[in-house]
Queue: 2 jobs
Job 1
Amino acid sequence: MLSIKPFRRLWVALSLSSLGDWLSILALVALAPSVTHGSNLAKTSSISGVWVVTLLPALLLGPIAGALADRLDRRVTMVVGDVIRGLLFISIPLFPNLTWIFVAKFLAGIASQFWNPACAASVPNLVPKDKLERANQLSQLMTYGTAPLAAGLFALLGWLSTALGHGIPFFHANKVDLALYFNGASYFVSAIAVYTLRQIGKREHSGRISVPSTAKAIWEGWRFIRHTPVVRGLVIGMLGAFCAAGVVIGLAPSYIQSTLDGGSAGFSLVFALILIGLAIGMGFGSRPFGDFSRRRLFGVTLTASAVPLTVIALVPNLGVVALFVFLMGVVSGIAYPTGFTIVGLEVDDDTRGRVFAFFQSTIQAILLAVIAVAGFIATGFSAAIGAVTGSSNGEVKIAHITYGAPGDNLLLLLSAVLVAFVGIQSYRQLDDRKGVPLLEDLITAIRDEPLKRVPAAPAADGQQPHGHAGLFLAFEGGEGAGKTTQARLIAIWLREQGYDVVTTHEPGATKIGMRLRALLLDTAHSGMSAHCEALLYAADRAEHVAKIIDPALERGAVVITDRYIDSSLAYQGAGRGLPTAEIEMLNGWATHGRLPDLTVLLDLAPEAGLSRRARSADRLEAEPLDFHRRVRVGFLGLARAEPERYLVLDATAPFAEIGQQIKDRIREILPDPVPHVSEAATGSFPAIPDHVPDEVADPW
Ligand SMILES: Nc1ncnc2c1ncn2[C@@H]1O[C@H](COP(=O)(O)OP(=O)(O)OP(=O)(O)O)[C@@H](O)[C@H]1O
Ligand SMILES: Cc1cn([C@H]2C[C@H](O)[C@@H](COP(=O)(O)O)O2)c(=O)[nH]c1=O
């Protein structure tokens, strides 16, 4: 991942910026009480004040900043944000008073509210879609993984300050100043890294298209979330999960230190284990799941995180809690970046910043609110349980287990129930492989075997795909594999046996299709979005099936098509990185579930296929070699998943040899056997003109 230079730069900037955020919290939490005069309560309140000004910008500004960030130049937003934050933190040692600490931290928080969505929304523009998940995992890893790093660094800088203090009295008196200077410097280096990142580019708004007001943009962002099932599913899941996280964070200090007698060492251990678990989950957790649907993975991991939480709630033992907290970290570490990847893949560039901002600000708001009230609710529960059970010291004993503060356990258990509930809900909303059993899908993905196809969606009129009297054959493969050549040879062979044969192709077999083909292959449209491309190919296919394929099959003809749905799965799925299940659904809908009886896949290395081309490259052919390699792998994966419906042939073999193998296989499925004697007379090329219906124009 980090070999992609633009992403590497953004990642360095994100890491430095996150390190700066954590370091600033540690430094200010240490500094605030030391500049506060008065009682212990005043000093403690100054620490709370630091937390409040840390979280407040997200509550007040999250959605507005996200909407504005969508309209601003992301690179400039990030550079300015870094410089402002750097200056603010360097200014704190110069004006060391509580008011300025609060003001500076609050203003820096506002800058972060712009910086974070601009950064998150830029990642999908810097990496290929198939690498987006890894990119998000690395980003999340640094966002949270820098927390323990910052703690270590803070300790190191404190030690350095003390050492320097022996020679330079300034450092002797100001132990956290070095950390604040370091903090400022980390933002400046981040600014330089982002400044050199020209690929983030300017957000383009045509002068003719009106740009909505900020308020309208926010409203549209909220409406978008409400009306988009995928994002709604994510929101339900994330918010529920962070509610539970708030309960865990809110109760952890008292539960571990007092109820479990872990003391501060026990608390530090559990804190470290959840961070390590999160880091492992984010860094490596989704790897064993191979091609398993990321939408399903999000729902499954979210629901699964209820299991360790339940154990934590029911078993008040420090060792057990430590182990299951670690497991909870791993599972949540898989779910969190998976959710972000889904937003990156499925929310378009214009609204992505707003959606990320919505997530980040709502998550922080929920965390803050739940952390604040969790202790009170648990105490209330304990009191109620004490009143019901009549226990004088508030303890409850169930089957040899003594619950010292049963309200804590009850609240943790309720959180587990909430997580399980939202996990199942969001799984239902997000599921993109309906009809494929979950367990089977999971095992297949873990074994790295090709995934089963999603059953075709019923037609719009509710009908299932209809049977047909004829035979439907598709020729598939990469560029220049010999599809057209072999399709024509087979058509000649079949016609000579008296079969009614219709040869056709995609895209562009119909009048509408010809226009779509021109749009799709024109190199002038090189920036076409992957979604638009997939829809145009599906539109061409819908017309193709309705006007040519279905009528021909229904009258009993043999239809031979040069490319069909598999081309979309390979090019737009494997090539462009769109989710295969969605392309299947889209095309299932467009074609009423019409699938070929046999698909002949001509397999050829893209280097060889592209070099067979005689004319200049069209828009798809002009894609880089890597794209065509992914397409080839995509085709082979489809064939491996359903070997009975495919004939895979080495397209480097001579024409006649390939043709013979195709004939042998087709003979097995032809309505009437073709006599062998007739074959000798039919090997010749060029073609007999194909039958072309009146309304259909042949673009070739
Ligand atoms: N088996 C083969 N060996 C060598 N050359 C071949 C073979 N099959 C086809 N060719 C040549 O490769 C070129 C491309 O063939 P063809 O047009 O049939 O491929 P295609 O898969 O339909 O290409 P496209 O993806 O552009 O539609 C032609 O010049 C054809 O003669
Ligand atoms: C049907 C279909 C096609 N494509 C691509 C594959 C080729 O690059 C062109 C068609 O060109 P050809 O010379 O006629 O083979 O379009 C695709 O990307 N997705 C599809 O569904």
Job 2
Amino acid sequence: MTGMLASVATLAEARLVEESGVDIIDLKNPAEGALGALPLAEVVRIVGQLKDRPVSATVGDLPMQPEIVLPAAEAMAATGVDYVKIGFFPGGDRAGVIRGLSALARRGVRLVAVLFGDDAPELGCIEELAAAGFAGAMLDTRDKKKGSLRQACPDDFLRAFVAETRAHGLLCGLAGSLRAADVAPLLALQPDYLGFRGALCGGNRTDALDPEAVLNISRRVRGRASPGTVA
Ligand SMILES: O=C[C@H](O)COP(=O)(O)O
């Protein structure tokens, strides 16, 4: 069954989505880009207050340089989050980053690679990520002004991404400016989770979460939305 990931920026938002039944609470600073990081101390504080829901956190929109990504991933893992999300941005030394992160994975850190649908990622990297010990891979969008993941990628590509991640035993997520109308078509692809921020804030991801919007999306992901619910 597909779960729901909600990206939150504060403890109050984390508590709101926890009470709304969200499956994965994702800590990020939406004001700092697609994968903006919260301060480590804030992540520690929030993690300490949450009871029984897996927590992920992003390390920031970092250049693909091992000397930058590896210490950031190590520091985020030390906060106690369940998953550390690493954005695979264009350029840099991607192979070196994956090689370095494999050491973290071997120590039991659960890493999730975030690939960007608007960068037309090669699915061949999924095998490399699995071999390096990553726990999961997800698609997101890097440019939040260019529309949703489903506008960046045809559903056939999304279907192939889900199949490839599953074939390599990775947790699979789809996200990227998803809206209520995207839920049903994406549930049909059966990813492990769908991720949201913008749709939970009434459209602007740097606004605060709207409890009604969180419930609306949560019900749709769980298949309890009444027909004709406002998208
Ligand atoms: O991981 C989740 C995504 O970053 C959600 O953010 P978005 O819906 O604003 O694209």
